[in-house]
Amino acid sequence: TSRTIRHASNKTAPKKKSSKPLVLEKPTKFNPPSHGSRLPRETPRYPGPQLSAEDIAMQKTNKYPSMMPPDGSFMHWFLTNKALHMYISLTTLFTLAGIVFVTNFQRNSPFADMIPPWQDLFLHPMNYSRRWLEILRLNAARTTAETDARRARKVDDVAKRAQYRKAHGLDKDDGFGGWTVKNDQELLDAVMPPTVSVSVEADAESIKEKKKLKKWLGIW
């Protein structure tokens, strides 16, 4: 006798595919799309009654958040006055330039100890200005003297070099101001040795002696 052993299985037989298309369930409520297919029409605007002169004047004097101050107020004048802004800018620039000038003068000039204290500008403005003018004149005279001395040293150095060259016979070949006058041949000899110049001339003559090639239609 033979026994047939069958095991339990969860697999089910495959269902046959239906030829009918899937139909979605009808919603209980109509949900329109977020964007319509047509642009919305402009709704009529009702501006209301025309404002009176008192209302317009009141709007100009009212202060609204995140907006310019109203006309006629101090802040509106301060923010829109161009002359005031130019005056503030120029005053700031001239003040900074004066501070830089005084600081450099005190650091580099030997007359810095003669500068009067800044309190005298308010107590004695005339004397303060005269003192500053005297200091500036002294500084200008010192700068002029240093420049003249520097130029005199350079002229003396040039004269001493000329005397040295004359004493040692080095000024015979000099031309105008120590520059020599040479012709073209001397300049070429100084740049190229004679052997190089001869070879260059020979190459030039050999190039000239070559026959010109006949060309057809200017190409071959």
Helix-strand layout with pairing:
Layout: H1 53-61, H2 74-80, H3 82-108, H4 120-123, H5 125-167, H6 184-191, H7 194-209
Written overview of the protein:
The protein is mainly α. It has a domain at 109-196. The protein is 52% helix and 0% strand. The mean pLDDT is 76.
Give keywords.
220 residues; mainly alpha; 7 helices; transmembrane helix; transmembrane; membrane
Summarize the structure.
The protein is mainly α and 220 residues long. The chain has helices spanning 53-61, 74-80, 82-108, 120-123, 125-167, 184-191, 194-209.
Element string (H = helix, E = strand) = HHHHHHH
Helix content: 40-55%
Radius of gyration over alpha carbons? 51 Å
Q: Which runs of at least 5 residues are low in confidence (pLDDT < 50)? A: none
User: How far apart are the first and last residues' alpha carbons, in Å?
Assistant: 109 Å
Give a short account of the largest sheet.
none
Could you tell me the strand content as a percent range?
Answer: under 5%
Would you tell me the structural class of the helices and strands? Answer: mainly alpha
- Topology, number of strands: 0
Q: How does the overall form come out from the CA principal axes?
A: flat
* Overall pLDDT metric: 76
Specify the number of helices.
7
